[in-house]
Write a structure and sequence with these properties.
heterotetramer, A: 272 residues, MetI-like fold, 13 helices, 82% helix, globular, C: 357 residues, alpha+beta, Rossmann fold, OB fold (Dihydrolipoamide Acetyltransferase, E2P), six-stranded mixed sheet, 8 helices, 34% strand
Chain lengths: 272, 272, 357, 357
Amino acid sequence: MSLARRAWAGGAARRPELLVPAALGGLLLLYFALPFAAFLARVGSTPILAQLSAPGAQQAIRHSLLTAPVSTAIATIFGVPLAYVLARQSFPGKRLVEGLVVLPLVVPPVVGGAMILTAVGRFTPLGSAAASVGIPLTGSLIGVVLAQTFVAAPFVIITARAGFGAIDERLEQASRSLGYGPLSTFRNVSLPLARGSIAAGMVLTFARAMGEFGATMMVAYNPRTIPTQIWVDFIGGGIDAILPLALALFGLTLLVVAAIQRLGRLPTVVER
Amino acid sequence: MSLARRAWAGGAARRPELLVPAALGGLLLLYFALPFAAFLARVGSTPILAQLSAPGAQQAIRHSLLTAPVSTAIATIFGVPLAYVLARQSFPGKRLVEGLVVLPLVVPPVVGGAMILTAVGRFTPLGSAAASVGIPLTGSLIGVVLAQTFVAAPFVIITARAGFGAIDERLEQASRSLGYGPLSTFRNVSLPLARGSIAAGMVLTFARAMGEFGATMMVAYNPRTIPTQIWVDFIGGGIDAILPLALALFGLTLLVVAAIQRLGRLPTVVER
Amino acid sequence: MMLNVDGLGHRYGTERALDDVSFGLDTGELVAVLGPSGCGKTTLVQAIAGHLTPTAGRVRLRGHDVTGQPPERRAVGLVFQQSTLYPHMTVGENVAYGLGPQGVDPDEHEAIVDEYLDLVNLADRRTAYPNELSGGQQRRAELARALAPQPDLLVLDEPLSALDRALRVQLRGEIARIQRETGVTTLFVTHDQQEAMELADRLVVMHGGAVAAVGPPRRLYESPPTPFVASFLGRSTELPATIAATEPLRLAVGGDELTLPDAGRTPPVGASVRCLFRPHGLSIRPPEDADAELSGTVRRVADLGRRYDVTVETDDGTALVVERRREPPAVGEAVAVAVDAGSVVAFTAAGEPIDAA
Amino acid sequence: MMLNVDGLGHRYGTERALDDVSFGLDTGELVAVLGPSGCGKTTLVQAIAGHLTPTAGRVRLRGHDVTGQPPERRAVGLVFQQSTLYPHMTVGENVAYGLGPQGVDPDEHEAIVDEYLDLVNLADRRTAYPNELSGGQQRRAELARALAPQPDLLVLDEPLSALDRALRVQLRGEIARIQRETGVTTLFVTHDQQEAMELADRLVVMHGGAVAAVGPPRRLYESPPTPFVASFLGRSTELPATIAATEPLRLAVGGDELTLPDAGRTPPVGASVRCLFRPHGLSIRPPEDADAELSGTVRRVADLGRRYDVTVETDDGTALVVERRREPPAVGEAVAVAVDAGSVVAFTAAGEPIDAA
C-alpha cells in the first residue's frame, strides 16, 4: 500500500492541468506576502529598541505575556476534556454544544466584548458583586483574560477534538482489555497520541489570545495589552510609531507558526 | 462494517468514565453560553429599531453588507483553486506556501492592518499611485475589502482544502479514464463532492469579514462598517448605545452558524 | 467452561444485531465464529470483551458472570483486524504494556517480553517501532502483546483479513502453533470458512445475528443443519428436486433420478426439496452415459493448476460447477454429469435437512 | 495485440517500483497480474491507465504508443479495490457518465445503461444511490460503468480484495461470465493466486517490481521457473537436498533418497538443490514403510471438512504439510511420508529450475 500511496503523489508530480489553479492561487498568495514584505522592509529603517523600552510598551508586553498564557492554560485545561467527550461520545443536544463551541469563533470580537460586558460588566449583578470583593472583572487583567478565553478557546477545543477523533477507538479498547481503566488509558494512549494536535491547538489559542483586540478593547481598554497599546500609539503617532510593537507581536507570531510547522501537525489536522 | 461502526458508538453511549471530562468541559461551555444569554436578555429591553434607523447605523450596515460579500467572493475565486492545488500536488516550497496561508490567521489583526498600511498606505508608492488615479486603497471601501480579504481568506482556503483532500483521488482518476479531461473532471466530480466544505469555508470567511475590526480600524477607520461603528458608538454612549448594532451583527452570525449546521459540514471537516 | 455466552442479544436502536446467541468454550479449545459481514460477529466480540453492554443475555468467564464488568476487569486478550499497536512505544514496550496491571514484578517484565517475542519469532525486533514492522510482523507483535498477560480467553477478530493470501496462509499456521504451545482458550472470528475450518476444533456459524450451527467442521460440512450452513461452508450448486420414492430415497432432478443413502425422515413422495451438489461430488462422463444423473453443456473451464473447475449448464439452465483432475472437456461440448450420492445434501422446502442416515 | 507493455520501469525517488516489465494481451484475453503487496502491481495499473508516466518503457494499445497520452485519451476502463462510484449520482447516472465523452447520442444513453445494468443484474437499482447498494452491488455497478463506453481494455485492480470470501467467490463467477459475454480484453490484478488461476487464461506473476513468470496457470504451477513462483502459486514445503545420482536423477533428502523423473539438465552429483513438496503430492504411510521417502512425527491435524491437513515434523525439524482424505493419524504418532515424484519441483541453489523432462 505504501507504494500505492506514493503512486498518486508521483502521478501528480507532473500534472500540467494544475497550472491554471496554481496561477489563480498564486495571486492570493502574493497578496498575503506583499504586506509582510513591505512591513519587514519598513521596520528595517526604524529604531526598534529605543521605542520598545518606553514604559508604555514595556508594560503592554508584560501584560500580554501574562494574560495570553493564562487564557491558553484555562482553555486547555477545560477544553481538552470537552474535546475528548465530543470526539468519543454522542448524546442528545450534541449539535447544540458543537454550535456553542463554534459560536465564539464566528461572533465578531466587538460583539463578543459587548456580550461579556452584559454578563460581567461593572453594573451587572455578577460584575458588581465581584468588584465589591476586590476582583474587578472589567478594566482589569482578569477582564483581559475573560476576553481572550472567550475568543481563543474554540481553537484548542476544535483542534484537540480532531486529534482525538483521528485515534482509532480500538487502540483505547485494546488498552482497556490489557487491564487499564479509563483514566490510565486516556493518560497512556489517548493523550500521547493526540499530543501533537493538542499542542497545535494550544499554539493557535495562544496566538489568538496574544492578538486579541476587539473584545479586549470593550472589556478592558485598560490595562493595555500589546494590541490595544498599538491602537493607542497609532492614534497618537501614526504607522511609524507602532512598528516596534507590531514587530514584537509579529515576532511572537512567527515563533508560533514555526512551532506549528515543526510540530508538523497543523497542516494534517487542517487537511483532513 | 456498518454494524461494526455503530458498535463503537453504541458502546460509548453509556460510558460513565466520560462524566469527569464532560463536567470540566461543561464549565467552559457555560462560560461561552453565559455572555450570549446575558446579551440577549439585555437586548430585549432596548428600543432596537429606532436606533438601527439612525443614518450612521444604516450606513454601517450598508457598508458591511457590501464589503463582506465582495471579500468573500475574492477569497473564494482565488482561494478554492489554491486549495485544490494544495490538496493534490506536492512541490518544493509547499510548506512555505502552507505557512503563508496560515499566517494571516495567526497574525494579530492590528498587526495585519499595520502590514497592509506599509504596503498600500497613502504614502507608499503603490498607495499614492492608486490614489492619484482616483482609487484610494486606504480610508475607503476598497481598503475595507483589502483588510477583510487579508484576514478572512485563509478560512475558505483551509476548509476547501480539507474538502478536496477528503475526496479519494481515484474518483477523479476514474472520471479521467471514462474520458473526461482535467477541467471536466474538476467540474463533474471534485467540485460537487467538495461543495459542502467550500460552502462552509465561504460561510466562515464571510463571518470573519463581517466581524473584522482590528485591521479595518487601521486601514479604513472611515467609511464605517458595523464593527467600527459599534466602537465609535461605544466610546460615545457605552454598552447600551451599541446593543442594536451588535444584535444586527450577532443575528447575521447566528444565520451563519445555522447555515453551517444545516450544511452539516463544519463539524465533520473540523473533526477529522 | 472457560467462556459461556448465554442468550446474548443486542440492538442498535431498532436494529437487531445479536439474537439469542449461546455457546461455550472449553479450556484450551480453539473455536471459530464464522459468518458473513454484518452477521453480528463484531458486536459479539465487543460484548465478550466488555466494550459493549448487551441488551440481553449473559457472558460468563470461568463461570463468573462478567456481563456488567468493564473490559479491564475481564482477562480477555483482544486482537483486531487493524493493528492497535501503540505507535509511540517500541515492540517491547507494547508487549510489556499489559503486564503492569497484572501486578507482575517490573523486574520480570524483561524476561516475559523476551519469552513472548520468542514465541512469535520477533525477538530481534524488540526495539523497533510498530511502523518499522511489516504487516505480518505487526500481527505477531499484536499476538505477543495480547498473550503476555496470560488472558483467560484470547479473542482474534478477523486477525488475518487485511493481509495478502500468502501471508494469511503462513500466519494461520503460526496461530495454530502458538495456540498449541500456549494452550490459551481462543475465539477466532472470521468470514473465511477455509481459515475457520483449518484452525478450529469447533465452529460457531452465525447468520443474521443468530447462531446457525455449532459443531466440528467435518460434521457441519457433511451434515449441515440449514442450506445457509451448507453453502457457506463449501462451494455448492443448488438444484430444485422432488421426492420420487422414499425407500430407497430417490429424487427427481432435472429429468433424471438420483438415489440417496437411506434417510431417517423424508417428506412424502412429490414434495419439493432443495439439493446442494458439491463440485467434488460431481464427475464428467461421456454424454449418454447410463450411470450419469444429469446432462448439460460445458460453458467454461477454469484451470486451477492442480485441477479444473468445469462449469456445466444443465438443460434447465442452471450452472453446475464440477471439479476434474484429468484433461477437461472442451467448451461447448455436451456432457453427462454423474453424482456421488454421498456428497449431496438435501433439504425440505422449509430448509429442514433430510438426514442421510 | 490489444495491449503491449514494453520494458516498463518506474522509480519513486530512488525506490524502484517497476523494473523492465513486458507482456502483451491478445484481443478478448483475460490475463491476471499476480503478486504480493508491494510488487508493483498498482504502479503498473497506473501506468497502463495513464495516471502515471513511467520513467522507462512504452505502453501500446491496439499498436498505438499511448505512453505520453493522458488517461482520457486511452480507452481503458478502470475498476479499483475501493468503490469509485460517484455518491452524488444515481447508479444509472454513474453508468451513463462515461458515455458522454464517447459522443454517444444522448437519446441512446438510456438504452445502453439498461443493457449494461442488465448485464450485471442490477436493472432494478437504476435509480438508487451508491450508498444504498450492498458491497457486491457496488462492485457490479462499477463494472457496468467501466464497460458501458466499450473500452479497448478493462483493468480490474484487486476488485474483490475488500469483500468477504463468499461474496468474492460469487463475484468471481460473475466476472468470468461478464467477460465471456462482452468479450472485453481484461487485465485482472490480484494478490490471490486462487482467484487469478480460476479466472485467467494466462498469468503474469510479479515479484519485486519485475515479471517473475508469464504463462498459463497449469504450466506455471507444474513447471515454475523460480522458487518464488512455485511457492506463490500453491502451498509447498521447501526441504534442502543434494544430488545423489544423475541418471536417473536421485536426490538425497532428509536421510532418504527420492527418484525424480528424468531431467533435461542437472547439476553434478553432490550439488545442493532446493526441493518444494506440494501437500497433495505427499501421503502418510505406516512408519517403516519401505516405499516412503521421509519420516517424522505428526504435530497437528486440521480438519477441513473435505480433507485433513496433517502437519508432520520431519526428523530434522521441518514442518511438512500433507493432505489426506481418509481418517488421519493421531497427533504424536510416528509416520512415514511417501512422495509423489511427479509433484516435486526442484531448483538449483541459484534458483534455476531442474526441469522434469
